[in-house]
């Protein structure tokens, strides 16, 4: 008995792993290790393909891309490939987090205005409501087949992992060299693939096992890139597929955030395909589905054939063709049908391709391409499947096969092929022409939201205007080009508003004045000022003051700071002399200005005055008078003309009142300064200078000086601060020598001083005429452009190929029905080049509910209905003095006072009479005073209006306490 005791103990079983049930997943996959997946018979390496730009590229560039992809596929002979195209919801939370972290020095919240949290939350809600997603393309490549020993080691892994860990990983170790070769092969230009990360593989498995179910906004990040067999239950548990016999869809039921969700999925397959001319006529055929308004999933199983396999098949096929031809010609003395002759010719062509030229590009393959669409019910899924069929007709046949359950399983990595039906054969060039990774790629993911792409792929467009300067060490020069009504002002206002909220500082020169409405927004008003230069203090545009004096601290990082600072001061003085010379030359009549002697006497006087910042043009006139007294007769003639121009009201902006302080010195740091010149009469764009009137010549010179005044703020602030300068009507600057110098200076200093400079112009050619502009420009926005020459120049600015059909596309931006008489307030379209290789057509979006007040402020479309609604002087102000106001019309106190003053002066019902002095002013065509309505004294010395055309006299809006030419209004 004692001897039997040990035997009973040895035979007795203890509770442990031996009694646990074995888990076997209902999918073919058995484990995941990094980017490698293993089934019972195969090991595949998974890669994520980089997005490939297709829009706005020449046919030669597209052909190069197709050839590069084909060459990489040709190197994969004898391997199975699995292409999976899926979508991932745009990471709104990730963008919001990056945008919030990137908003350095943002504005503090203002009571009654939209706060930062409300702004950021509104942007996120609007983005999530658009339901846009990113296209993701994965490529699985067979590394090797698995032997019986490999499968035995896998089954024994729980024991071997403890006893001999190295043996359990021997298979993967043996594949290291081959996997490294594949990593290098697919990383080249064409596929531009990188090994999939653990999160990528998890996302692919989730989207494949839960085919058709809504994608989660977020997915838990994995800390380990290895999944054992038992871990795969995370992808399969809670998801089931059902199919009724002969049903056109498969029903997928799963859980999403503890709720049961059901979708019907229709799986289609690519059938017969006519000859496609890619890229000359057709787009990549896998990209067609991106145009649909719902997500589409792709799964392609491809086998790249070896040359010897194809050669043997070709010989057999050629033998069949020759036998059939001989049957016609020898046996029946008949001509063979042309279809048979074409088959024979095609076989010979393929045989020649395989025996000559680049083997990689002539490799053959066969495969199966499946498409999956989902709907909330079967009717919606079938309807969407029909839309897929329609979008591919007539060149590509899309079939809707039976056995939907098995076809749906094909989308899961590691699952076997459902059926060999609908096999497609072709060359690697044909397969590469599908370009599965072609998509819209423009902008970044940390900047402001501009809108969305509106080409084949629809996705959000974010843009950080300071990414180029701070990260990529590039220029901050930006061109905004488009004809009248193309939306340039709206786009500029959107960029200025959103970047201001994120902490930037802006100075905007808007001659026409609509952007001044930004300074009255409650959240911006305490940090903004609006200066109407035509009503500002005398000397605000003194040419000697608009050029900033260099600061010594800006040159601290130079090799020789003192020498660099002195050199820059000398350059600034030379710029002032050249600027005042150009301005004074522009003030004299054109016939006098083009005389060589005029330039000579002005140059002498300007040099004598010097280029110090404390000078003014009056000193130049005094110097000309002195030269005239010394015998220079022409100097006196030029001085007389300048004195005459000096008497003009607008010319007073050039000549300061020496008894006052500098009008540009502000008492506080403003985040937004808008300079306007309402009422200024500019020449017609493109008109020669000799046709300009005196008033138009003065307006161009004032615009030039105002542009220089705008850039002064760059050099007065810390060079590291994010600053912006926006200049409108810049096509006139290109016609003035110092205007070209200004554009060139802003372009070259934008990176050093962290500036984003926006140049708005109606014609791209005006900017291209500035030397070096095309090479220095970073980002470009091109709106609707109709003229053929202007279209070509706009494409040059975009660095897009010309002469390949893109010119006509610029004329179709922002389309509008011809017979629609409703206000044209549709969002405008632009072609956007982000400066980093991305070029796409985008749609500007400011339709979020939290930005309604911004959209209304930037709306420059005229509308007579706003008069009665807002209570501004309108319908009542247009009536005759004795005409009663219409019922419901609004008449404010200022309008009534003006009407009473007119009646008192002229008598009710009588025509207005003019004094002799007023008649003399009207006879002078050089004076245009009707735009200055604020100077009208009303009601016997009553206080003037607030100057913004709204509200009664003496009232002020919250944003009206701002500096106006150095004095607080």
Automatic annotation (TrEMBL):
<dbReference type="InterPro" id="IPR027417">
    <property type="entry name" value="P-loop_NTPase"/>
</dbReference>
<dbReference type="Pfam" id="PF12846">
    <property type="entry name" value="AAA_10"/>
</dbReference>
<feature type="region of interest" description="Disordered">
    <location>
        <begin position="933"/>
        <end position="969"/>
    </location>
</feature>
<feature type="compositionally biased region" description="Basic and acidic residues">
    <location>
        <begin position="958"/>
        <end position="969"/>
    </location>
</feature>
<dbReference type="GO" id="GO:0005524">
    <property type="term" value="F:ATP binding"/>
</dbReference>
<keyword id="KW-0547">Nucleotide-binding</keyword>
<keyword id="KW-0067">ATP-binding</keyword>
<feature type="compositionally biased region" description="Gly residues">
    <location>
        <begin position="943"/>
        <end position="952"/>
    </location>
</feature>
<protein>
    <submittedName>
        <fullName>ATP-binding protein</fullName>
    </submittedName>
</protein>
């Amino acid at each position: 008995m004692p001897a039997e005791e040990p035997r009973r103990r040895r035979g007795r079983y203890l509770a442990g792993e031996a009694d646990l049930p074995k888990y076997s997943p209902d999918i073919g996959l058995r484990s995941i290790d990094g980017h490698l997946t293993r089934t019972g018979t195969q090991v595949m390496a998974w890669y994520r393909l980089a997005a490939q730009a297709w829009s706005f590229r020449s046919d030669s560039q597209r052909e190069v891309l197709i050839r590069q992809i084909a060459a990489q596929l040709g190197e994969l002979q004898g391997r199975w490939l699995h292409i999976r195209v899926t979508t991932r919801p745009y990471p709104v939370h990730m963008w919001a987090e990056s945008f919030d972290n990137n908003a350095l020095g943002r504005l503090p919240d203002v009571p009654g205005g939209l706060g930062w949290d409300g702004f950021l939350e509104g942007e996120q809600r609007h983005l999530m409501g658009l339901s846009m997603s990113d296209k993701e393309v994965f490529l699985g490549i067979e590394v090797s087949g698995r032997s019986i020993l490999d499968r035995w080691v896998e089954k024994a892994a729980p024991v071997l992992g403890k006893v001999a860990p190295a043996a359990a990983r021997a298979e993967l170790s043996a594949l290291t060299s081959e996997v490294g070769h594949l990593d290098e092969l697919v990383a080249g230009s064409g596929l531009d693939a990188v090994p999939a990360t653990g999160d990528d593989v998890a996302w692919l498995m989730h989207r494949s096992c839960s085919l058709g179910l809504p994608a989660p906004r977020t997915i838990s990040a994995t800390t380990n890139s290895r999944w054992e067999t038992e871990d795969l239950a995370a992808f399969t548990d809670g998801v089931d597929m059902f199919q009724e016999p002969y049903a056109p869809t498969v029903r997928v039921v799963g859980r999403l955030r503890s709720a049961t969700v059901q979708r019907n999925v229709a799986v289609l397959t690519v059938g017969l395909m006519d000859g496609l001319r890619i890229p000359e006529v057709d787009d990549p055929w896998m990209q067609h589905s991106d145009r649909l308004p719902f997500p589409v999933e792709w799964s392609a199983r491809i086998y790249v054939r070896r040359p010897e396999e194809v050669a043997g098949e070709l010989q057999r096929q050629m033998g069949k063709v020759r036998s059939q031809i001989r049957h016609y010609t020898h046996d029946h003395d008949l001509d063979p049908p042309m279809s048979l002759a074409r088959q024979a010719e095609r076989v010979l062509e393929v045989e020649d391709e395989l025996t000559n030229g680049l083997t990689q590009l002539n490799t053959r393959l066969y495969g199966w391409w499946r498409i999956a669409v989902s709907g909330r019910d079967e009717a919606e899924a079938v309807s969407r499947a029909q839309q897929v069929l329609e979008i591919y007709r007539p060149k590509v046949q899309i079939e809707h096969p039976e056995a939907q359950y098995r076809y749906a399983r094909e989308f899961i990595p590691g699952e076997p092929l459902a059926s060999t039906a609908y096999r497609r054969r072709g060359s690697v060039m044909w397969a590469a022409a599908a370009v599965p990774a072609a998509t819209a790629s423009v902008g970044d993911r940390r900047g402001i939201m501009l809108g969305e792409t509106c080409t084949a792929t629809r996705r959000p467009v974010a843009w950080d205007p300071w990414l180029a300067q701070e990260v990529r060490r590039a220029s901050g020069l930006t061109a905004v080009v488009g004809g009248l009504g193309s939306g340039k002002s709206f786009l500029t206002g959107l960029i200025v508003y959103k970047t201001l909220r994120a902490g930037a500082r802006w100075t905007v020169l808007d001659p026409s004045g609509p952007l001044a409405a930004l300074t009255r927004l409650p959240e911006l008003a305490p940090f903004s000022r609006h200066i109407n230069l035509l009503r500002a203090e005398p000397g605000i545009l003194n040419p000697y003051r608009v050029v900033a004096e260099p600061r010594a601290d800006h040159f601290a990082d130079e090799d020789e700071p003192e020498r660099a600072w002195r050199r820059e001061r000398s350059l600034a003085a030379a710029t002032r002399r050249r600027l005042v010379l150009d301005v004074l030359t522009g003030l004299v009549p054109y016939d006098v200005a083009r005389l060589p002697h005029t330039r000579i006497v002005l140059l002498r006087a300007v040099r004598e005055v010097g280029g110090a910042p404390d000078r003014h043009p009056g000193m130049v006139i005094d110097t000309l008078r002195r030269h005239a007294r010394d015998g220079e007769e022409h100097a006196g003639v030029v001085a007389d003309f300048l004195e005459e121009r000096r008497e003009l009201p607008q010319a007073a902006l050039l000549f300061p009142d020496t008894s006052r302080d500098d009008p540009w010195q502000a008492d506080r740091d403003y985040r937004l300064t808008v300079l306007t010149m309402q009422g200024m009469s500019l020449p017609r764009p493109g008109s020669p200078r000799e046709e300009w009137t005196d008033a138009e010549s003065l307006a161009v010179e004032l615009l030039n000086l105002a542009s220089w005044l705008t850039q002064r703020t760059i050099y007065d602030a810390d060079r590291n601060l994010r600053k912006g300068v926006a200049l409108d009507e810049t096509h006139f600057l290109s016609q003035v020598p110092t205007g070209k110098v200004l554009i060139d200076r802003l372009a070259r200093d934008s990176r050093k001083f962290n500036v984003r400079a926006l140049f708005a112009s109606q014609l791209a050619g005006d900017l291209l005429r500035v030397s070096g502009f095309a090479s220095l420009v970073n980002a470009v926005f091109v709106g609707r452009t109709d003229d053929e020459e202007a279209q070509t120049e706009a494409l040059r600015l975009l660095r897009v190929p010309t002469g390949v059909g893109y010119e006509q596309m610029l004329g179709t931006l922002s389309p509008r029905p011809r017979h629609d008489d409703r206000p044209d307030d549709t969002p405008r379209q632009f072609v956007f080049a982000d400066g980093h290789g991305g070029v796409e057509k985008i749609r500007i979006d400011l339709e979020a509910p939290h930005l309604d007040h911004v959209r209304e402020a930037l709306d420059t479309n005229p509308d007579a209905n706003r008069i009665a609604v807002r209570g501004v002087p309108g319908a009542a102000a247009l009536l005759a003095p004795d005409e009663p106001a219409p019922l419901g019309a609004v008449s404010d106190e200022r309008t009534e006072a003006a009407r009473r003053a007119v009646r008192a002066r002229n008598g009710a019902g009588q025509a207005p009479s003019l004094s002799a002095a007023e008649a003399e002013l009207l006879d002078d065509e050089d004076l245009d005073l009707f735009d200055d309505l604020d100077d009208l004294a009303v009601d016997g010395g009553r206080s003037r209006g607030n100057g913004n055309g709204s509200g009664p006299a003496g009232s002020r809006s919250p944003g009206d306490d701002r500096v106006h030419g150095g004095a607080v209004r």
